[in-house]
Amino acid sequence: MTSVSSPSETTTPAVDTPTVPTDAAGREMPDFAVPAPLASHGPARIIAMCNQKGGVGKTTTTINLAAALAEYGRKVLIVDFDPQGAASVGLGVNPHDLDHTVYNLLMERGTSAADVLVRTGVEGLDLIPANIDLSAAEVQLVGEVARETVLSRALRDVENDYDVILIDCQPSLGLLTVNALTAAHGVVIPLECEFFALRGVALLVETIDKVRDRLNPRLEIDGILATMYDARTLHSREVVARVYEAFGDRLLYTIIGRTVKFPDASVAAEPITAYAPDHPGADSYRRLARELVSRGDAA
Ligand SMILES: Nc1ncnc2c1ncn2[C@@H]1O[C@H](COP(=O)(O)OP(=O)(O)O)[C@@H](O)[C@H]1O
Ligand SMILES: [Mg+2]
């Protein structure tokens, strides 16, 4: 791994060596191999997509990373853990029509994950949907015994059926997010490449540290994912440089560019890998999938 040096100190390649592709922080870009097919599935590595700021790309990353992993033959489950239900809607599931969602899974002892799980249009990708009912859980859980571990226990039934479970968190650090962090092995933190991106990240990291200390010793930060990157602006490059300065190699090599294809794909209720399979946006999430698998952060 490269050392945590200032991103401006990139090494100049010798005259006769071909220029190596670099990431936005100036690091030499590794060639992440296509993951080998799996002979069998599970147990899942559980990843929480987390940032208490809204609009940073959590849901977009959850859907498209999941779809890219599924393309590589992984069995993937998305847990929509935001009462807005954006991950459900983005996969073509209208959560208002559903009687059984993640809310029932959390709050009813007789309901198991298999009862609330739905198949999506993407082969190998299933979903536990959410709708506005989930907002009540935040309040109702407060009175429960072991209120932080409810999701973790609820997922135990299906953990062995999947290679990766992605939890799409809501934009808050409340009890639902603490449940996601308690259930997870890793956290991916999407950060929008804009000026105030780092504001609030210290508090998020502190929350992750507390959950690790008190509830879930296995919890790791898998990486920080720069999203909505615009290579044409100095601004985007500065933000990435700043994130690299602050977090070093926790910054994932993969950077997600800003493109209207992502909102377009959400309107079509498809992952970008299905909506525009040859678009660079689809390739960037495939690269993210390969990066996480090659680091051992996904199966
Ligand atoms: N890389 C991107 N380029 C352009 N728009 C994006 C990108 N990623 C997400 N978006 C759009 O930005 C909005 C917020 O993204 P979303 O994934 O819903 O964020 P969050 O779940 O963190 O609130 C959505 O309209 C989404 O389509
Ligand atoms: Mg979201």
TrEMBL record:
Signal peptide: none annotated. This is Chromosome partitioning protein. SUPFAM superfamilies: P-loop containing nucleoside triphosphate hydrolases. Residues 45-221 form the AAA domain. Residues 1-27 are annotated as: Disordered. It comes from the Bacteria. Belongs to the ParA family. Coiled coil: none annotated. It comes from Paraoerskovia marina. Residues 1-24 have a biased composition (Low complexity). May play a role in septum formation. InterPro entries: AAA_dom (IPR025669), DNA_Partitioning_ATPase (IPR050678), P-loop_NTPase (IPR027417).
